[in-house]
Amino acid sequence: MNTLQDEIELHNIRRTFDRPYQLWGLREAPQPQGYETESMYRTRMLEDLKGKTTYAKENLKIAQENPKMLANFEERIRRDLETAPYRDGVLRELRRETQTGGEILEYVGPKRQWMSQFQPPTCISPIYENGMPQPIPVILSV
């Protein structure tokens, strides 16, 4: 049975894992089980998340016993997940709540993913010099 302080700590851990889960494409981190300690809860979430990173084959059971090693592994997984939308070329929606209960939507991913609709068509300059296309001169009116 967890004490109130343990419950608060587990809740804080869950809130820190919400962003990596949303970067993975899920709404939020899973609830802690009643029997879980902090390290067990962190390890369970890291086991879920590491499958989407480059650290999928690493063993977390050893890190569970050493808090410093677990924190290091957690940092590496988080860093890898932060770059995942850019690496995969997808746009992810992130939802956060403010302290007053309002919801904030963020979008993470490469700019080309959402700006491509505003990109002008590619054109080749009609001006050639020595067989190479030259930039079109810009005429500014004063």
Supply the key terms.
single chain; two-stranded antiparallel sheet; 142 residues; elongated; 46% helix; 4 strands
Q: Which spans of ≥5 residues are poorly predicted at pLDDT below 50?
A: none
Helix-strand pattern, N to C? HHHHEEHEE
Shape: elongated
Assembly state here? single chain
Q: Distance between the terminal alpha carbons, to the nearest Å?
A: 76 Å
Number of domains: 1
**Rg value:** 23 Å
For the largest sheet, list the strands in their spatial order: 1-2
Q: Label the structural class.
A: mainly alpha
Q: Portion of residues in helices?
A: 40-55%
Number of strands: 4
Strand content: 5-15%
How would a crystallographer describe the biggest sheet? Answer: 2 strands, antiparallel
Q: Count the helices. How many?
A: 5
Average per-residue pLDDT, rounded, comes to 79
Q: What does this protein structure show overall?
A:
By secondary structure, the chain is mainly alpha-helical. The chain has one domain. 46% of the residues lie in helices and 11% in strands. It contains five helices and four strands, in the order ααααββαββ. Strands 1-2 form a two-stranded antiparallel sheet. The chain has a two-stranded antiparallel sheet with strand order 3-4. A hairpin with a 5-residue loop joins strand 1 and strand 2. Helix 1 runs parallel beside helix 2 and helix 2 runs parallel beside helix 4. The protein is elongated.
Describe the structure concisely.
Helices cover 46% and strands 11% of the residues. With 142 residues, the protein is mainly α.
